[in-house]
């Protein structure tokens, strides 16, 4: 191996140095124009002094006893000007000297492990960036002060609010909605006789108020949750039993409140509505039972609640409570599906259940991938992820796949 490399270098030394200096001059121009020379071909179209020997070197390495695949891919990427993972290359470069001194077999094995880990993480990033998993209620990030995972906004949901004028308009509209909600709650609570549906509507309004309370801290405004709460409020406004219990005047006030809520989300979060669009294609298969799907989600949420930091970073209690409240909303829909005698109402409830349970499931999947402990070797689980992502054929299959993903990362086979 060493002899073939030495022979190659000796042969290359016979060539004119003009191509080397021309390439160097091209690199200097790129640097002066603030362009990274590492993402351009090494020889900039010049005739490479190594071009005639690289194929033979590469072939000898490919059939060598030791694994030289990293070095082949690394140098080929440099030749082609393809971007490389700088973090991975830095970690390889910082392998301790004692390991390099133990020989090519030892150090190439270490490099292969590093490369495999980074490729697994790249697969995770690809899944997290998929349209399906971006339809979650919210994203998750690590709170280093509390040592917990917390729910946060998707950057694309709030990017436009970094414009001061647009933020000011949103805050004005949010304040108007808050005032309307508080007036409505006061009117409901002042009724001498409890109104049917008033408790459920009030609970939904409380959730909206809590989320809007985050509006002055953009990163913590979970737009997906806000949109879901608005959809739930609209469901109540369309429910005949709820309207009858509230009475005509209050039902009409609820309609106006829903209109204000929908107006706010459409005016300020149109991109978020597009983000959750993939969920609209989810539907219950003829043989799928909502209660079975709810049971799968219950198990997943219970596993999240038991996270102790060994394989998963625990989720903040207040955010776990949100997942549980969303689960309770699903349970309400399941009860409605089981008790309604109106076929059209049942179809609408099943459509609503499919969308919301799907969004709950991808939110759980997003937490699972974000919360896996840094530094632990999850290569087998992540290889399974890469092979099976997208394999689910229906809603039950999607949620079952997420349960298996949790098991794989948690070391349960």
Kindly summarize this structure in a few lines.
The protein is mostly helical.
How is this structure best described in words?
By secondary structure, the protein is an all-alpha fold. Helices cover 66% and strands 2% of the residues. It has 19 helices and 2 strands. It has helices at residues 2-12, 18-32, 54-62, 69-80, 86-93, 97-100, 104-128, 155-158, 164-189, 198-212, 223-238, 240-246, 248-268, 270-275, 290-305, 317-339, 343-371, 379-388, 395-409; strands spanning 139-143, 148-152. The chain has a two-stranded antiparallel ribbon with strand order 1-2. Strand 1 (139-143) and strand 2 form a beta hairpin. Helix 9 (164-189) runs antiparallel to helix 10 and helix 12 crosses helix 13 (248-268). The protein is elongated and about 95 Å long. 25% of the residues are buried. The model has no long low-confidence stretch (mean pLDDT 85).
The percentage helix is 55-70%
CA(first)-CA(last) distance: 42 Å
Unreliable stretches covering 5 or more consecutive residues: none
Strand content: under 5%
Give short descriptive properties of this protein.
single chain; 413 residues; mainly alpha; two-stranded antiparallel ribbon; 66% helix
List the helices and strands and how they pair.
Blueprint: H1 2-12, H2 18-32, H3 54-62, H4 69-80, H5 86-93, H6 97-100, H7 104-128, E1 139-143, E2 148-152, H8 155-158, H9 164-189, H10 198-212, H11 223-238, H12 240-246, H13 248-268, H14 270-275, H15 290-305, H16 317-339, H17 343-371, H18 379-388, H19 395-409
Antiparallel strand pairs: 1-2
Helix pairs in contact: 7-18, 9-10, 9-13, 10-11, 11-13, 12-13, 15-16, 15-17, 15-19, 16-17, 17-19, 18-19
